[in-house]
Amino acid sequence: MVSRKLREELGPDYDEGNIMVLARVMHRGLDGRSHPMTRVLLYDNKAAGEVVARTVDEEWLRLKTPREAAIWSICLYVSRSMNAEERSKVGAAFDAVVTRSGLRSPECQRRNMAS
């Protein structure tokens, strides 16, 4: 999706041989948005009487586990042979695309462009 939108943003200036967008998702199973521990059932084998399955406490999950169940990263690579002006144009277009797509907040875009 980001590659397609970047191609649309740059129009005829998009050079497939010099621009590459790499998207990567690393998750712990499930759908990438649900934490796997939300599906775990716990049993108290020391309890007297019938053993009842319980889910993991949501408050414990919130406090003790990483917030995101997945890590998403999108990287822009450009050829070394591109001059600084071309790189800057591609970088600005990439920043605009990921911000409009909701993958980065506008504040982050401003911070990254300033550095």
Tell me roughly what share of residues is in helical segments. 25-40%
The tally of strands reads 4
Mean pLDDT: 82
The radius of gyration computed from the alpha-carbon positions, rounded to a whole number of angstroms, is: 22 Å
SSE arrangement, N to C:
HEEEHEHH
Question: What topology, given as strand order, has the largest sheet?
Answer: 1-4
Largest sheet: 2 strands, antiparallel
Portion in strands: 15-25%
- Overall geometry: rod-shaped
Q: What ranges have pLDDT less than 50 throughout 5 or more consecutive residues?
A: 110-115
**Helix/strand/pairing category:** alpha+beta
Head-to-tail CA distance between termini: 26 Å
Tally of discrete structural domains? 2
Q: Helix segment count?
A: 4
Describe the structure.
The chain is α+β, with helices and mostly antiparallel strands and 115 residues long. Helices cover 37% and strands 21% of the residues. It contains four helices and four strands; from the N terminus they run αβββαβαα. The chain has helices at 2-10, 58-64, 84-100, 106-114; strands spanning 19-27, 41-43, 53-55, 70-78. The strands form two sheets. Strands 1-4 form a two-stranded antiparallel ribbon. α1 packs across α3. The protein is rod-shaped and about 75 Å long.
